[in-house]
Design goal:
Radius of gyration of chain B: 19 Å
CATH topology of the largest domain in chain B: Rna Polymerase Sigma Factor, Chain: A
Number of domains of chain B: 2
CATH superfamily of the largest domain in chain B: RNA polymerase sigma factor, region 2, helix turn helix motif
Shape of chain B: elongated
Order of helices and strands of chain B: HHHHHHHHH
Number of helices of chain B: 9
Number of helices of chain A: 5
Largest sheet of chain A: none
Shape of chain A: elongated
Oligomer: heterodimer
Number of strands of chain A: 0
Distance between the termini of chain A: 74 Å
Largest sheet of chain B: none
Chain lengths: 91, 234
């Protein structure tokens, strides 16, 4: 049975946790600050969830986006292309 | 003296049109705020457009420039997907060989980088299948069943990830994600692509891309919460 935060019991027009969480993929990234969402303002658990997800996204942004391949890789690709051209164009 | 068909090292482009920074980088922006409009469509960089046109005509020097422009993005994608440098190099090589074979078919319906990424993603997914990851599990990763939702309720009160997230823990957790989730997370949260671009690369709907990303973050949350307990046992 779904847990309903006590504060929400007093405000029946506010959606349940599962209904809110089902909408999260769409809500996140729309640009609307979710901190002002009625459910978030009344639910500590979902507020904590949202904070965690934001932390994860923020941590991911700090991971180095690019790694440098070794210089030799181009030589290997070059050799493979030459080999391929020999097969396709024997003359 | 005729120029060699291939340069010994790929030339450095005058300016990297793909940029060194993360795509859509806006440092002050919250990760959940409005996405920066993407340059998806055909608004490609003029430098790259010229190089691309030459490469399509068979100019190998231009192809080497394309390699220089995109090698980091493609290699990093492969590396994060397989977690092994040797495999990532093989996959990068295969992706650029496919590019060499198919570059003449690029018609500019999407950004070149999106088109190339899609090619690389297909190479990676094929590799993962060959390694024994069942095709069905990849499909499920892109269209997960209800049973694949995180087992525990998301909202137990003690779930907060305290403070900053350990980089190593995050890297490890990413490596454990199902391939489809991992792809969505890498492309969006690490590489900075927008959902419309990811949907084009993965040939899925916008909603599917959002759903994959969200579920990836939820799984990472679970994994990261388990991390301190695993460390304590060591």
């Amino acid at each position: 049975m779904e847990q309903i935060p006590s504060k929400m019991k007093e405000e029946p027009n506010i959606m349940s946790c599962s209904a809110f969480q089902a909408q999260l993929p769409e809500l996140i990234g729309t640009g609307t600050p979710l901190v002002f969402h009625p459910h978030i303002q009344n639910c500590d658990d979902c507020r904590a969830l949202l904070a965690d997800l934001e932390n994860i996204a923020e941590a991911a942004r700090k991971l180095l986006p690019f790694e440098e391949p070794p210089d030799e890789l181009w030589k290997q690709i070059e050799a493979a292309i030459k080999k391929q051209n020999q097969y396709s164009d024997p003359a | 003296m005729p120029r060699s068909r291939f340069p010994s090292q790929p030339p450095r482009p005058p300016r990297d049109p793909t940029g060194e920074a993360r795509k859509g980088e806006t440092p002050a922006q919250s990760p959940f705020s409005t996405p920066v409009p993407s340059e998806l469509a055909t608004a490609s960089n003029p430098v790259e457009a010229d190089v691309l046109a030459l490469a399509q005509k068979g100019d190998h020097f231009a192809f080497a420039q394309l390699y220089s422009l995109h090698k980091r993005r493609i290699y990093t994608l492969c590396l994060r997907m397989v977690g092994n440098k040797a495999e990532a190099e093989d996959l990068t090589q295969e992706a650029f060989l496919q590019l060499y074979r198919k570059i003449g078919t690029f018609r500019g319906d999407s950004a070149f980088s999106t088109w190339l990424h899609r090619m690389a993603i297909n190479v990676v997914l094929m590799h993962l299948r060959k390694k024994g990851l069942p095709v069905s599990s990849l499909d499920e990763a892109m269209e997960p069943a209800l049973s694949d939702r995180p087992a525990r309720g998301f909202s137990a009160p003690d779930l907060n990830l305290a403070g900053s997230i350990d980089r190593m823990a995050l890297e490890r957790a990413i490596a454990t994600l199902p391939a489809g989730y991992r792809l969505a997370f890498i492309l969006h949260d690490i590489k900075g692509y927008e959902h419309n671009e990811i949907a084009a690369m993965l040939d899925c709907s916008l909603g599917n891309s959002k759903s994959q990303l969200h579920k990836a973050r939820l799984k990472l949350r679970d994994a990261l919460r388990a991390y301190p307990r695993q460390e304590e046992r060591r």
